[in-house]
Amino acid sequence: MKDLSNSIHRVGGYEETAYNYYPVLIIGAGESGIAMGCRLKEVLGFDQFRLFDRQSGVGGTWWINRYPGVACDVPALFYSFSFSPNYEWTSFHPTGPEILEYFQDVCAKYGILNNIQCNTDVKHVRWLKEEELWEVTLLHLVPGTGDLSGRDREKMVKQHGHGAVYLREEIVRAKVVCSAAGGLLEPNPWPDTIPGRDLFEGELFHSARWKANVNLQDKDVIVVGTGCSAAQLVPRLTKEPFNAKSVTQVMRSPPWVVPRPEPPLVGEEWWEENSAWWFTHVPGLNRLCRSLMFAASEALFNNVFLQTPQAIKGRKKVEAHLIRHLKNTVPEKYWEILTPDYSVGCKRMIYDAHWFPGLNDPKIDLTTKPIKSVQAHSVTLGPGRAYPPPTSTEKEEPSDEIELPADVVVLSNGFELKTWISPLKVTGKHDVELQDVWNSRGGPQAYMGNAMDGFPNLFIIFGPNTATGHSSVILASENMVEYTIKFIRKILQGDVKTFEVKKDSEVAWTKDIQEKLKDTVWLRGGCHSWYKGENGWNATTYPYSQYKYSWDCMFPKWIDWDIQYTRQGLRRVRIKQMMKLIAFVSFIAGLFSIRKQPLTSLRGVPNALKQAIKLALQAGTQRLGRGMEWLAA
């Protein structure tokens, strides 16, 4: 019977227990999932895989984030795949729609669109010990409902019934599962500590679920948060085509704001008009510029993010520069509340050219007064303030309350980033859930940010402790994809049944990461950030350079893995071991032969080498014969 283990096929025909089988199943059709699909086709020539994504379109976070001003804060040359460069970016920092179009074009270029199935949520992944396969529970969604947050889907089910969201459940199986779910999945909810959410009669939504039909014309808008999304969003709301009457931005603590980098030497305007021609007609220019950006980001890591005397000194210089930028750009009334009391780099920095200048708009107000409550058409702020703390200012803490009119409230308070791959449920070979393993070991973790013991043939793309804080997420994802491909190749070749990282290796890797993080600004910078949990566990950032991570991904440490070989794979391993032994013995034999025939002059070198090779081949042939007898046995 033909071996179908590397082919998508139906098992069980029309039986009730029949299922679809996938050699490789990928969760998520964002940038990481797209990269995995493209590289499976390009590197391995393999197209028998399926990507499942609960959203209604391809592109991950760039599909779902549609708020005004959404854009890339990393130069586009560095926020694109090295295997599929784009020479025609319209801007140094392109908009969200342009980035989405790029990812969709890559899918079309590599022919993986037919491998992607949207409107499908992966609910549960469970390892089957006997079959040595993953059983995957899929929920087929009513088209478009996957674009809602998990809470909104639950709310819809309560209001309109299960069928309003879910069409059917399906059980499939897979040999390899790659989770490329990403981190920006579930928006943070309305804070439970603030009463009145249900009383509000205006529009209230998260920026990551922007309502395309919302009318802001002459409306009073409250924006909660001052992260990267809020910085892009706020200055656009008072301008065409939105024309909000007023925008009040509520801030808990200030971010460090970095002037958005412009193309060196030439400027943004020249770049937009000429860069496409130069990258198209000058071979290697794109790769050179990308390499220079990589080198610059690594220099930033060494000079800002570490806890070395050099980096501490470097941070002071950067902070002084950013404070000057602050005072040269925003009104004086905001200087105190926009001056951070923690080290630069401790939290995600904001790279934007519009937020600080936008604070000069008389229609925009920034406050650190906390939200006390929400009424039908208003929001009450105060008393007190969230920032600055009393110990760092001579100003008295305000004791008054302010009730502001509010027609629209926009939450821009980030995402739930500390649970990792949630709400996906993953049950390993010991019938233990992945989240429970993480809880028992202190927090989310994974060897190389990619694999966990007890979960064979499961690879996480952009897993715990792989974010950089200074470099491109695309680079990190590509490294993990190339790393994972090395394992999948051996499985698809039929050499290996399962790969499972050893527990000692995973624990040691995580211990090293957590120890090294103590010598970085992320844990020593004096801030409260989403990089770390309440217990101080940092499951987000990677404390070494991307040079090191790229190198480690190129050369897997196979000794750190429990590898279950197939009969074919074991035979190949034995042949390799035997050939290494033969080469070593032959080399020693050659040395002895030279030693028995002392050289009287340099003229004797060729003859001596010939004799050594002849003896080595004779010895190797004898050992090869014995080795084949051993293999046959």
Automatic annotation (TrEMBL):
Gene Ontology terms for molecular function: flavin adenine dinucleotide binding; N,N-dimethylaniline monooxygenase activity; NADP binding
Domain of life: Eukaryota
Keywords assigned by UniProt, alphabetized: FAD, Flavoprotein, Oxidoreductase
Keyword Transit peptide in record: no
Stretches for region Disordered: 380-400
A Pfam family matched in the record: FMO-like
PANTHER family, per the entry: L-ORNITHINE N(5)-MONOOXYGENASE-RELATED, L-ORNITHINE N(5)-OXYGENASE
Family: Belongs to the FAD-binding monooxygenase family.
Record's protein name: Uncharacterized protein
Gene source species: Ramalina farinacea
